Here is the input.
Amino acid sequence: MKRYIFITTIWVLSTSLVCSDNKNVTEGVFSLKIALQGDGSIFQLIAYCKNGDRITNKRFLTEQEFIQYSTGNWPSIYNPERINYLQKYDLNCGFIIDEFSRQQLFGCMPLDSLWKIRYASYPYHGVMESGWAGTDNGPTEGQLKYLQERYNVSNLNLNEFADTNLFKLLYDVMDSSWVAQYKYM
Here is the structure.
């Protein structure tokens, strides 16, 4: 009987310590990197599982997959509770069902503006719209400092906008006062 109590006590103590340690909790993360990609795109959407410093199940997403997973429309390990993050952060993203073709149509206006953070002009031919970066070589030092302070991104070549910082960025790029502030840093 003493042995049973001893083993039970050890088990309860060890499991309570493990459960209270946040390093043992795996969570899904959505992230984004703004950089020219080999396929010609200007950004890369990523999903992965994070447990402490360990990253697993990393997957590069299309815009459609990002919308489906981040809305919870598709079940995934990246969003097991199926939270609609796009609605939660009041983003102009999602899908509609075309009444005629009955197909899902996808769109995310904030994603279409992301290139402007990094570039003063569109990096490919065909778009005459100006970006928000302060120089032809990219953001100014003031803009980079702002990205570091607000989104924890110090280097656009190396860092990703991740988790809540990603959704905060997508919200911010749709705000004209944020754009004006960023452009003149």
About this structure: Helices lie at 2-20, 63-71, 85-88, 109-113, 115-118, 141-151, 164-172, 176-183. Residues 22-183 form one domain. The chain has eight helices and six strands. Residues 2-20 form the longest helix (19 residues).
